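Re: export button greyed out
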Amino acid sequence: MRGARPLAVPQVLHDVLAQRSGRIGFVIVCLHLSVAVAAPMIAPQDPAHQDAAAMLQSPSLAHWFGTDRLGRDVFSRTLLGGREAMLIATLATVIAMAWGSALGILAALIGGRTDAIVMRFVDAMMSIPWILMVMLFVAALGSSSVALVPVLGFSYGLSVVYLARAATLDFVTRDFVVAAQIRGHSRWSIAATELLPNVQDSLAVQGAMQWSWILLAVSSLSFLGMGVAPPTPDWGQMIADARGIMQRAPWALIWPMLALSSLVIGMNLAVDAWARATGVERNRRVPGA
Amino acid sequence: MFSFEKQTRTPIAMILSLSAKVLATPLVILMTLASAAQAESVLRRANDLSFGGSESLDPISANRFYEVNDLIYSRLIRQDVDGRPAPELAQTWTANATATEWTLTLLPGVTFHDGSAFDAADVKFTLERVKDPALESPVTDVLGFIEAVDVIDPLTARIRLSTPHAGLPLLLMDYRVRMLPEGAAAPYGVGTGPFKLDSFDPESTTILSANTAYWEGAPKLDKIEFTAIPDSEARNQAMLGGQIDYNGLTRDQEPLYAGNPDFTVQSYPAGGWFGIAFQSNQPPLDDPRIRKALRIAVDRAEMLALMTGEGNGIVSCDTPVMASDPFRANLDCPQDIAGAKALLAQAGYPDGIDIEVFTADLEPGMVQYAEVYQQQVAKAGIRVKLTVAPSDGYWDDIWLQKNAVTSWSQRPADQFLNEAYRSGGAWNESHFANATFDALLDQARATLDIDKARALYVQAQEILFNEGGTLIAYQENGRRVMTSRVTGIAPQDEDYIRWHLVGMAE
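Workaround output, generated via the alternate export path:
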């Protein structure tokens, strides 16, 4: 390992919490994660229970966030509405980071025609708007959560290839890499032991950002009816259901919107703080935006 | 007469005066136009561009521009408020003893918008073209059994059928079967209706003017204008903003007009429904006991309330036939969880059953319908895996192939039962096949006595409830909103509106 420090979680945490925006973001994200874990225990009502006698009720003691058009408790649904999307986002992020990093690092290391072919492939795939690509996959594979994980993992891994390759190119001509090649180390070995430790900060920051982008993507797909399937409550699905009644029952729309946006904003604040602490220039542009 | 005065005003005063004139001119023009519009009684409506601009003035086209065709053409027979056949351009209709020939006498003195007289040759032309394969009309499925039409004299036409059909007058009430002049060709647009076509642009504005020679009397309105607004919410905003005078309404939009004296909101019985078509030809749903269990586990009254609000529809015991249809079976079908469990146990599923139901966000409520179903039947041990399929291609790739949420608009009993349930029918969405059911429909078609025919249709619908594959929990009311100046429209389906009696109060 040359010039790289291990990705130490306590150190990262310390760096993030040292900044005000980092503290705010961290608290928001932790709060969301805690709620997501504890929601089945703390949700006061069955989120799928429909009640024709309680449709579109405004917030009350019985229903803190009011009820939706099927008389379901918006508070319970909001508490539970992020779980599935967060799980999908986590798994898809792992897949995106794994294949994207591996391909990007190897492309930079091997260089030449292999690098050119890989990057043209990635260019071609990235020229397709992500939502269109995901919709094509969903149309072909179905919209189950199981199908969404690899689809989003593939689609969001494309930008990781770029980032991993760019970060790796800074190091491939360094002496320690050349020395490892002379020593006869395999490409995989060089990638894993010499390059990965040096690009891990960039990749970790990118991974955290990918997570919030994928979360937004899952919610967008649910909004369009292609994400999380009922009866599992989901913020995107709740927003879609409530958009036609926003003047009549704004509470059915506001709470899932607040939940989703606060989580994404919290994640952004935390990641920004983290990027500043590690000196990583993070890509602020949302893919496809 | 012009006069020149000595200029004594300051430059600033001149600029102000000129500005006032410049500003006033368009205002005056607008006011003049507005007063002209007021002097001319115009009803402004919106069309939803559902065929993307290929809306057709051919009434039997799959892309028929219904709202406009309804105004410019007439039918032979229309329905009265009880859903029974009533004269329109046909004064009387009688069948031979075997119901294979129907003789119609036509209303004398009716003229088309181009001044030509309406007669039996026009009836022959209009009804015989229904079978023209080049037109690819969906009406072929409904009236394809018309073999030929004989012109007996200018006011008498005889319709010969390839199979007996006592319900022909009911089928002639179809909203698409409207009289064209003999030899009519694209782009069509000449009819005998209360309004004439002035200009036609389904993507922009279509203008109709009163047909003062209309056979039921000159319309009260001078004009009806249609503006293309594809989005439901945009149409609603146009209504709220006073840019249109008449519009359909969804349940969610209705409260926006509550208590506002500028608008009149109407809810009226109609025959449209969402349902779930279970594939009766695929195991295990080929067992009628399972199909019945899947349907009787539903609390239809609660579903109606959840989906439409209180009092906005009528419960259906899986009959597609609307409440005002004389052939509807009015059965009783409360939720029966114990019965559903017992049927499932008899069929070999004592621990409940897993089924997959597809839906799509094609129309407001289609996903929720499946959500309500999923929740209600869970009590009977029916575990529904709900898949929201992409809207695009839903009717091609999912419908007719999977257990799927479906959506139908109202149509006469005979048409519905034959189109959607007869063995092997092209739109038999649940692949229901029952020889007794088919035979009952044949018998009903050949029965001239309306009460006997009704008994047969009711029997057929009872079979659907006991063995059928389609859940139909309710039929939803229609809703509309109008500016309160609009007169002459009762809270009834659009099909009943007599547009020549519609006016705009001052």
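The interface with chain A takes residues 233, 250, 252, 255-256, 302, 305-306, 309, 360-361, 364, 367-368, 370-372, 374-376, 385-393 of chain B (CB under 8 Å). The button fix ships in the next patch.
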